[in-house]
């Protein structure tokens, strides 16, 4: 697990380095912010359409081999991009095509690598392993964004892509030496004909997700939070540079505090032993209320005070939600469930920013933060009340000639 964490840190740093450089590269080639956004959408779009098939492949194929091959393919794409940049042969069409190929490979790589990490620890330690993964992700994000500017400044844009390619190859070289922990959930990958796992098609994987109230509730909580919150790089940027009369430096400070809060939250999330949808919902509701207070901030100093707990709560909630998502389904279904989740998450990532932008046009930055936070807290609160009412409503059944509570009748029958 230590080796896997180191490999993921290196890979995350390389990925964020490439993402940072890619946005700058598109701007240099086209001079269009819209084209930059389009390149990000093109890379995310495959997950919307084929993520469920990628998850099914992860359930079918040996997990270590799948993760190693997908990492090597991502490295090859990065090296091809680096070569084209170095030879000045990269245009917008080529860049979009490479981004699409990356997105397709990621539909398999994402669930494969996520579940591979869980195979390295006993079942009771999976939530902690997921928390460590979140911490590694945040640390890699900070490191990669910082290294991007240094690498481009001294070595050029092609070097950033080449470095990301090397990071993928490093992960691929580590995977063959990983060994599952004693007591870990075993995944053989290639299922035998005639078994229950063999009959589980992609469509039945979708049906499994739809029949699982816990997963549906998690999707609802995460969805409302993703659309009306979470996009702090958008809402807080407008709030800081608009009503609070700050500049780029002020927003940089806010972004740093958000990153620190994410790291603190990942550390706290790693200590969760029994994560649940109830915990995810409670944290999301608290985050919504903190967002309301942030929207009312009269100064940058007050906003900075609120941003830290907002980021901490969001990070812990994400860690708990990921733990539920990866441990609730049976072992042979987890790839498919993550595939369905990838499609759902893509809908949020593509539709959330435009919806939030429209809300900001109508209500301003403060109004969007306040209204969004109230919608999040109100929706989760209403859902909780409806659930409590549904499960606490008394039911009666006929027992001989009298009506008795259902629990009493069942007790008598038992």
| Oligomer category | single chain
Strand order within the widest sheet? 1-2
Alpha-beta content class: mainly alpha
Major pleated sheet: 2 strands, antiparallel
Number of helices: 15
Order of helices and strands: HHHHHHHHHHHHHHEEH
Mean pLDDT across the residues is 84
Helix content bin: over 70%
Overall 3D form: globular
Radius of gyration, taken over Cα atoms and rounded to an integer in Å: 23 Å
How many strand elements?
2
Describe the structure in your own words.
This protein is mostly helical. It contains 15 helices and two strands. The protein has a two-stranded antiparallel ribbon.
Describe the structure using short key phrases.
two-stranded antiparallel ribbon, 80% helix
């Amino acid at each position: 697990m230590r080796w896997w964490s180191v490999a993921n840190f290196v890979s995350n740093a390389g990925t964020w380095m490439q993402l940072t450089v890619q946005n700058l590269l598109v701007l240099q080639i086209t001079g269009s912010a819209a084209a930059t956004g389009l390149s990000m959408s093109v890379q995310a779009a495959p997950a919307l359409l084929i993520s469920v098939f990628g998850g099914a492949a992860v359930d079918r194929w040996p997990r270590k081999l799948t993760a190693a091959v997908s990492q090597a393919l991502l490295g090859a794409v990065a090296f091809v991009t680096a070569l084209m940049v170095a030879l000045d042969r990269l245009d917008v069409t080529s860049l979009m095509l490479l981004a699409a190929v990356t997105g397709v490979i990621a539909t398999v790589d994402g669930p494969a690598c996520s579940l591979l990490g869980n195979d390295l620890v006993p079942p009771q330690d999976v939530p902690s392993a997921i928390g460590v993964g979140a911490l590694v992700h945040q640390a890699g994000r900070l490191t990669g964004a910082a290294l991007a500017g240094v690498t481009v400044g001294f070595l050029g844009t092609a070097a950033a892509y080449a470095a990301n390619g090397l990071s993928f190859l490093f992960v691929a070289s580590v995977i063959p030496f990983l060994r599952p922990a004693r007591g870990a959930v075993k995944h053989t990958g290639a299922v035998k004909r005639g078994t229950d796992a063999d009959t589980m098609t992609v469509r039945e994987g979708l049906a499994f997700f739809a029949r699982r109230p816990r997963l549906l509730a998690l999707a609802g909580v995460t969805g409302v939070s993703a659309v009306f919150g979470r996009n702090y790089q958008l809402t807080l940027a407008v709030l800081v540079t608009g009503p609070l009369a700050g500049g780029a430096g002020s927003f940089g400070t806010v972004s740093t505090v958000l990153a620190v809060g994410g790291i603190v939250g990942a550390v706290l999330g790693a200590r969760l032993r029994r994560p649940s949808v109830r915990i995810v919902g409670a944290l999301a509701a608290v985050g919504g209320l903190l967002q309301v207070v942030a929207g009312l901030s009269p100064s940058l100093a007050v906003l900075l005070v609120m941003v830290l707990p907002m980021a901490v709560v969001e990070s812990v909630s994400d860690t708990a939600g990921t733990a539920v998502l990866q441990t609730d389904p049976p072992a042979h279904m987890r790839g498919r469930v993550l595939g369905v989740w990838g499609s759902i998450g893509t809908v949020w990532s593509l539709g959330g920013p435009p919806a939030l932008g429209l809300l900001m046009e109508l209500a301003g930055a403060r109004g969007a933060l306040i209204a969004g936070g109230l919608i999040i807290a109100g929706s989760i609160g209403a859902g909780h009340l409806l659930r409590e009412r549904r499960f606490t409503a008394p039911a009666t059944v006929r027992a001989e000639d009298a009506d008795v509570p259902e629990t009493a009748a069942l007790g008598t029958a038992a």
